[in-house]
């Protein structure tokens, strides 16, 4: 059986690249996208996921509505900085047509649980926003912890500062309690954090190659990512490009050899001044069983080549 993948997305710009990377990868079958909040509100994110899978020629991928706010809040509002980086519509303010399809009737948490029971170790789940949906699934059915193949998250920062404050990364900051439930659950989790994602960059000369395909989706991806690169010129001028956060998590889910991993049991601080910090769990420091891996190095050249080749091939066809 080929590996099955679920993407859990707050579909902004790098999430859109994650969708394309997954669809362009013959090693995996994207069996569904579960919606979350963060870069955009839930409804905008699921709308984007439906529209993007359509223009990439994959209308068979179902999209599910997830939980639309964190465990500690009653609602969610998009931060101004998120709208600046991803655009008000989440996809660089580029217009693409609405899908004729709709989100599924089944909710995301049920779909996650059902998929784990169906595919077991052949399933990899990749959340690239807050971990609200997977935490809820674990609470509802703890048996999935031992059944699932792998959970590869984009989030956190262990060896570098956060991007919300000195210690907190944005996805973790949206729902620290959910991330802490996941980290301490004993589920197999690989953390792809700012330690590695900010080493992987795209530049205007890269996106031009997609535009040069002359296709609708090639132009869409180039325009969208150019918006993202422009935002990075303001927020992170020292980088010289845009970070490839979410697609790197997808790539590692497919090929872990792209990164250097350390085995460490992790936790998330949920109280006090360091709320949102991802750090080793001192209570499990001497536990011989390490359920988490954290990426601390990345083969930048090979990953960027894979991303450009895979997404380039896909957009050239649509």
Automatic annotation (TrEMBL):
> Per the UniProt entry, what is one GO biological process?
purine nucleoside catabolic process
Which InterPro entries does this UniProt record tie to the protein? Inosine/uridine_hydrolase_dom (IPR001910), IUNH (IPR023186), Ribo_hydro-like (IPR036452)
Give one Pfam family. IU_nuc_hydro
Kindly state which keywords UniProt assigns to this record, in alphabetical order: Glycosidase, Hydrolase
Q: Which GO terms describe its molecular function?
A: purine nucleosidase activity
Where's the Inosine/uridine-preferring nucleoside hydrolase domain? 5-304
Identify one Gene Ontology CC term for this UniProt entry.
Answer: cytosol
Query: Can you name this protein?
Result: Inosine-uridine preferring nucleoside hydrolase
User: What organism does this protein naturally occur in?
Assistant: Alloscardovia omnicolens F0580
